[in-house]
Every structure is written in structure tokens, then in C-alpha cells.
Amino acid sequence: MFAGIPYWLIFGVFIALSVLRLIFGGLGTMKRAGNMAAAAQELGFTFTPWTNDPDTVPKVATELFRQNSLSGFHNVMTGNYASLETQAFDYAYSSGNV
Question: Which of 14, 16, 31, 60 is at a distance of 20 to 30 A from 25, taking alpha carbons?
């Protein structure tokens, strides 16, 4: 199928697609952070785009969050809603050698 195509061209296309994926993935991440910051402001919450400070990391008492609690939290919104202390956040978790 690729018999007549030079290997360097296939490699170049692969690298170009990888770079585009990184660029568009980063733009999506920035857009999500902006949307969450706007929602936090509308609700009167504080917003932290990335945190690894033990005092501001959400306090969640499940095994999943305890395993990797300082590296996975981002886009943290904190405040009071309906007289309850509330936190909303994104969480990244890896279970393998990545």
C-alpha cells in the first residue's frame, strides 16, 4: 500500500498530525478553563486553573482521589451554593506507565 511512498514522508505526516493534535488539544483545554472561570464568577465561586497546594486541593474521601491527590486536580471552583460548601473540578488520573 505504501510501497511507492518514501518513509520520510510517512514519518513527516505522522509528526505533523501529532503536532496539530497537541495544538488543538491545548486550545480546547484553555477554552474549558475560560468557560469554568466564567461560570465560577457567575456563581460567586473562586476559580483556580491548576492546583497542587494541599490546602486548596478538593477534599474527596474516595480511594481514587487519595492515590494521586496532588497532581490530578485542575479547574477547581470553590464556593457556597444553597448554604453548602461546594467544589467542582476536573480530575486527571493515570493507572499505567504513561
Answer: 60
